[in-house]
Design goal:
Blueprint (H helix, E strand, L loop, with lengths): L1 E2 L5 H18 L6 E2 L6 H8 L9 E4 L1 H8 L11 E9 L2 E5 L8 H9 L6 E4 L5 H13 L4 E4 L3 H9 L5 E5 H9 L4 E5 L28 E6 L4 H15 L2 H9 L3 E2 L4 H22 L5
Parallel strand pairs: 1-2, 6-7, 6-8
Antiparallel strand pairs: 3-10, 4-10, 4-11, 5-8, 5-9
Helix pairs in contact: 1-8, 3-10, 5-10
Length: 290
């Protein structure tokens, strides 16, 4: 299993959570190969060019569908070179602000921002990431304008947010939940289509006043195009069985994610909808990768 990111994070966690039980189910060793670089492009390229025999798998994130729009020269064709297998995890981002920003709800933030265009800064883990595009979609739907401040990773971004050097962030849940509980950051809403089961007290952005807003920091499984359908079906079936186990679901919730449920054609349709969605956001905002 190639994870095109460094160790840590939801994609790496999901792959490692599955690896041992997949090994038992498939009667073959399952090795996690972290290949970070270029927002997931480097590792994904390895899988795109691998033999389509069912033995090389990509576990990647929402960036897989964003990269097609923010990078002009991908070394692979996102649609043509991969077959979607299944959604593994659904991990919404969460809109958080530094306590010094005098807003306590999404509606208050929108009103405050409209009165002060380009005076509020929002951090991200890098240009072209889900934490960046979450902010760009928010700007489009609310007709507000914030200053984007990209960092080299979610950790450094959260550190500067805690220090008050930036004022808000659409952060990944695991990176800020403890700080929210401690009162160091203020949570306004989660970005998913429904409330997060691990923190149901937070409304969705849509519920809080932005109809149509939905961003999932999802993790999914792909194989090289041309992989036999029998191999794909077995991989999807065994993965689904593992994700349905109560122990697995509990582990995912602790990490700020919920196990996925979309498989094969349903997941493929979801991936295509994400490609179209982020293409529109990127074209409107002019966002580009670093």
């Amino acid at each position: 299993i190639v994870v095109p990111f460094a160790a840590g994070g939801i994609a790496d966690f999901a792959a490692r959570s599955l690896s041992q039980r997949l090994s038992e189910a498939l009667s073959v060793p399952v090795i996690i190969d972290n290949r970070p670089g270029a927002a997931g492009i480097s590792g994904s390229d390895i899988v795109a060019k691998a033999a389509p025999d069912g033995h090389t798998v990509l576990v990647t994130s929402i960036s897989h569908t964003i990269n097609l729009s923010v990078n002009k020269n991908l070394p692979f064709d996102t649609r043509r070179d991969f077959t979607p297998v299944m959604l593994i995890a659904d991990a919404p981002n969460i809109l958080v602000t530094h306590p010094s920003l005098p807003v306590k709800s999404v509606k208050e933030l929108i009103a405050f921002a409209r009165a002060r265009p380009r005076q509020i800064t929002y951090a991200s883990s890098g240009s072209g990431t889900s934490t960046h595009l979450s902010g760009e979609l928010f700007k489009v739907l609310t007709r507000t304008d914030f200053i984007h401040v990209p960092f080299k990773g979610g950790g450094p971004a959260v550190i500067d947010l805690l220090g008050g050097h930036v004022q808000m962030m659409f952060a990944t849940m695991p990176t800020v939940l403890q700080q929210i509980r401690a009162g160091r950051l203020r949570a306004l809403a989660v970005t998913g289509g429904q409330r997060f089961a691990g923190a149901p007290e937070f409304p969705t952005v849509a519920e809080a006043g932005v109809p149509g807003y939905e961003v999932s920091g999802w993790t999914g499984m792909f194989v090289p195009a041309g992989t036999p359908r029998d191999a794909i079906n077995r991989l999807a079936g065994e993965t689904a069985r593992i994700l349905q186990a109560p122990k697995t679901q509990e582990m995912f919730l602790v990490q700020g994610a919920e196990p996925g449920a979309k498989m094969n054609e349903q997941f493929a349709a979801f991936v295509e909808s994400e490609i179209v969605k982020w293409k529109q956001v990127v074209e409107f905002s002019g966002a580009r990768a670093d």
